[in-house]
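DM from R.C. (forwarded with permission)

"hey, sorry to bug you on a friday — could you get me a structure for this? deadline for the figure draft is monday and I only need the backbone to look sensible"
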Amino acid sequence: AGKELSQLSACFVLPIEDDLGKHPDGIFSTLRNAALIQQVGGGNGFSFSDLRPKGTLVKSSMGKATGPVGFLAVYDKAFGEVAQGGVRRGANMAVLQVNHPDIRDFIKCKSDEGEISNFNISVAVTDEFMQAVKDDKKFDLVDPHSKKVVESPRAREIFEMIVDYAYKNGEPGV
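My reply, with the result:
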């Protein structure tokens, strides 16, 4: 009870809103808070599921969205820099819902050695998805912003990809 924060081993789950600066839980506000937790050796968990898919039009800038894996790479790089000056690295967990349109990129994001080295990754699967795998049916990938179905691949295809990459390098988890 009387220990300083730097002596505690704590893990925090931080929200990430699809916003660059206006929202207090926006992408870079959350990164700042997470870096401070990392600095004292704490760990962080993040769901990147609310971020719009890669390539989606961003109306305010007329640019294209980076997507969850792009921002995961930004977070990973930042935590690599924080670890350089710290006593020990804090652990990080990145999660993406199985129905996100960028799920394939997320599953593969650690396939190259050294890429995304400051995170463990995990896919959030649902009972509905697992039933679609069992029944060999299609499963909708849904844009978290528009709520529109982007694609309906066979659920088993996504599941087999998870299994293949988990076998290859131990990730993703589920």
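R.C.: lifesaver. Residues 1-8 have pLDDT under 50 and may be disordered.
me: no worries. The CA atoms of residues 7 and 40 lie 8 Å apart.
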